[in-house]
Amino acid sequence: MAVLATFLLRTALNDREQLLKVYSFITFLLSFLSLPVLFMTGRGRSRLAERFGVWNLDYQGEIIWFHGASVGEVNGLLPLIKEARKTFPEKKILLSATSTTGLERGAAQVDFFKLLPFDCDVWLKNALKNLKISHFIFGETEVWPALLDRMTANGIPAFLVNGRVSKRSFPRYRLMSSLTAAALQKVRLIQAADEDSKQLFIALGAALERTTVSGNAKYDFTPISLSQVEKHSLIEEFFLESRPLITLGSLRPGEEEFWFPALKKAYSRGLKINVVVAPRHKEKYSFFEERLRHLTLDYKTRSSAGKSNIIFLDTMGELEKFYCISKLAFIGGTLKDYGGHNPIEAAAHGAAIVMGPFVSNIHEIVESLKSENALFQIKDEKDVFELLMNITSNNDLIEQKGNAAKKVWTNYRGATARIWQSIIRARQ
After folding, report:
1. CA nearest 186: which of 163, 157, 161, 212?
2. Model confidence over 198-211: pLDDT tens digits?
């Protein structure tokens, strides 16, 4: 929506403030035009009024507001939310997201949670009326011009954390260069996840003196810990027998075209492995289940009481538990051009990482995995089949890559303290 509005305007107007007013008017119109599309899905209909600024937050005290687009971005905010609790125990925490799955991921850690309104000043003013926001802390790439302008108008300091601009997304931001530059100038401090992102932020108009590299707090989490008895019980609960487990995490549509036929072929050759299929979005459950049935792959859902060699994870929030017992973890969004999802959660449990070629969103971490020889790279069904057939015969190699992946996770920790201390200093 933001890209379309700006593309129509960037050659017509040179004055940034006037451009912002016209942009906000266009997004106002587009918010209504989006209604038919939103009504088509359950996720679109859920909490819809909040997208139009109907927050109805009745709280008179000070609030620290965190915002992340979806699950991955919210994961990167959770360690910082913990720091905010410790530093400002008297303040309430508000979390917003652009997706309902993002809200679900962080709801238990905050006092209030709402969907972010459309990027239009009318809806933003309505949502924020009477609220006392002391900090606005937002993650990765959520640079919304009207939102940041509203923060400035309300005297609320804005801090961008875990900041990321990929080479893939950079041209999109350049399309709305005037608005992007104006928005970035209104951010008190930009903390990029890596040096490449820092330079791209500066190229888009961020102030050099207010842009730094602090890493990504999403890597600062404590993995769940299961005893050997608990791991054995988990295997017994879901699988017919104890076998090497590969988890297909955050699977996106199109990637089943590589994995499911290869699994069918591997099982027909007598390969003894267990598999967890975990889609990225719950509204795609029926899509992937239909594909499994089409290939007559025998599976059971997580929510059912049965056992199988293939478990379809039709619940949210349990993926890490299966990473904990996995030999390998395929990271979704990498065999089709989605840009890739975060591999660190799986790496923290010592699972060997498997990825396709589309990793523009996670380029830096992928390079680190490559440098430590912690990564299996695949590009087609043939690669998938060969990987599957080698699981049982290459146990030492898989364990070696899993240990290397865990080392990469360890090396990436520590960003939370740097980011939070920088926010405190900049706020003073």
Report:
1. 157
2. 999 999 999 999 99
